[in-house]
Amino acid sequence: GDSSNLITNEMLERILEKNRIHIGEGKVADYIPELSKANANAVAFSVVKQNGEVVNVGDVSQKFTIQSISKVIALMVAVEELGEKEVFSKAGYYGTDKPFNHYANLETKGKPLNPLMNAGAILTTALLGGENDEAFQKILGMVRYITKNEAIGYSHSVYMSERETGHRNRGIFHLLKNNGLIEGEENRLDNYFKQCSIEITAEDLAKIGYFFANQCTRFDGDTKYKNSEMSKLVQSQMLIAGMYEFSGEYARTVGLPSKSGVGGGIVVSVPNKIGIGTFSPGLDAQGNSVVGYHMILDLVNELNLSLF
Ligand code: GLN
């Protein structure tokens, strides 16, 4: 049945308030200096129910940068354009025990482990090619489509901050080039920095979660991109690699395809059911939102949403 009918404002409110206690446990990302300006106390929790209805609590209008969650959109756009075979001839389907920005096996002429680590995401965006910021515009366009929110843009200051300090990502970009996996100049990497700087809300994330949970059908029922193979691919990657080296423990405790970003967002897809979006900028050692994780865990346990 549709257990999401049980989800009310009061339920989400209660879970959110209970988990404020964890706010101090996380640390706001500061390796991208501009991110350190986030309000550490902001919390938002959003669900798109099975019928497409939105339930939002907390700091609902708080915007934050999408960061690594953009990687699932870039993966979708790259596979739409180039096909799964081509994309996965250059990246693996592997999970990882390494941090998100690890070179993994690139130094031995290998491929990125998967498209959800920085190396794989820098690859998928570079594979989109194009002039100037064309690849970024495609990714932004898909985020706007999925959320039906044309007002979504990107933070120029976060973009500049990533670009100025992204030496490790620059290294990854050049190793990908060295290994013959991508072509082009560093503007291809700028597209990656820009996609990470896209500003969204928890509600936008819940809509993204809903989309991949429901064969790429939008929350309002639009089926322009309906594709069950695409949603299987994206959700399987989220399940094995969406929370980086915490993915295995997360699968054990939450048991759902999810993706985090260092901006403090987490998106969750409950297959064939609902989408969940959370925001709280305090991160654990792996770069996942602490309060977000706890809110998701409570909702999933209360409604028995785990796949397992
Ligand atoms: N823009 C960030 C980076 O490349 C994204 C990382 C993340 O959200 N985990 O370092």
Automatic annotation (TrEMBL):
What is catalysed by this protein? L-glutamine + H2O = L-glutamate + NH4(+)
User: Could you tell me which SUPFAM superfamilies the record lists for this protein?
Assistant: beta-lactamase/transpeptidase-like
Q: What is its EC number?
A: 3.5.1.2
Subunit field text: Homotetramer.
**Family (UniProt):** Belongs to the glutaminase family.
Q: What is this protein called?
A: Glutaminase
Q: What is the scientific name of the source organism?
A: Myroides marinus
Pfam families per the UniProt record, alphabetical: Glutaminase
An individual GO BP term:
L-glutamine catabolic process
User: What InterPro entries does the annotation carry?
Assistant: Beta-lactam/transpept-like, Glutaminase
Lineage top rank: taxon: Bacteria
What GO molecular function terms would the record report? glutaminase activity
- Do you know which NCBIfam families this protein is assigned to? Gln_ase
* Amino-acid positions noted as binding substrate in the UniProt annotation, renumbered to this chain: 68, 118, 162, 169, 192, 244, 262
What does the UniProt keyword field contain? Acetylation, Hydrolase
